[in-house]
Write a structure and sequence with these properties.
71% of the residues lie in helices and 0% in strands. The chain is built from 10 helices and no strands. Helix 1 runs antiparallel to helix 4, helix 2 runs antiparallel to helix 4 and helix 8 packs antiparallel against helix 9.
């Protein structure tokens, strides 16, 4: 019973649409209707400015970490419940009940959720994200590479434990949510970082 309650609360924490709320506070009525349509920090950055983008990023990272911390406090020593809570927070961000399940792509929330559980893997994933995004100027490709790296590093550091399994499930969701971006990259129509919209 406790496990189900914690997972439900983690989902609700993850589903808090900080990017949507921050963008609205900075003058963008509905971030889902501008730019990429994604409820995430990158789209907020592009359409509401750097301060708004940074604030959205910090809040999305924070809610992931908060969900994991809650599970760890309620089930000290357990690895299954924090891993499940981390995944639930990512699902909440991607499919928030408050926005009729139109959410973001889960990258920042996932990083925040798994950083307390596998800090070295999270740091490595952040490095991979930065390198790929800088080399290609595709934030989306960097995000996918980072998510896959998180899984690979988590397995390398921990084996096939619940946390590593949860990172794999998260990576699969991140790739799925980026499927349109990946198709646009293949077609040469994906927007690069720093490019203005045509």
């Amino acid at each position: 019973m406790l496990a189900l309650q914690v997972i439900a609360v983690a989902y609700l924490i993850g589903s808090i649409p900080f990017s949507f709320l921050v963008a609205r506070a900075f003058g963008v009525h509905d971030v889902r209707r501008v730019g990429s349509g994604n409820v995430g920090a990158t789209n907020v950055l592009r359409n509401a400015g750097r301060v708004a983008g940074a604030l959205a990023l910090v809040l999305d990272l924070g809610k992931g970490a908060a969900a994991t911390a809650l599970a760890g406090r309620l089930a000290p020593g357990d690895t299954v419940l924090p891993a499940a809570a981390a995944l639930a927070a990512v699902v909440g961000h991607m499919y928030p009940v408050w926005l009729r399940f139109e959410g973001g792509k889960g990258v920042a929330t996932g990083l925040g959720a798994f950083a307390p559980l596998v800090p070295r893997a999270a740091l490595g994933a952040l490095l991979v994200f930065g390198l790929v995004a800088a080399a290609t100027r595709y934030v989306s490709l960097g995000s996918v590479a980072g998510a896959l790296a998180l899984t690979g590093l988590a397995v390398a550091f921990r084996g096939n434990d619940p946390v590593a399994v949860a990172t794999a499930a998260t990576a699969a969701l991140v790739v799925f949510r980026h499927r349109s971006n990946l198709l646009r990259i293949l077609r040469g129509t994906e927007r690069r970082a720093g490019e203005r919209e045509a």
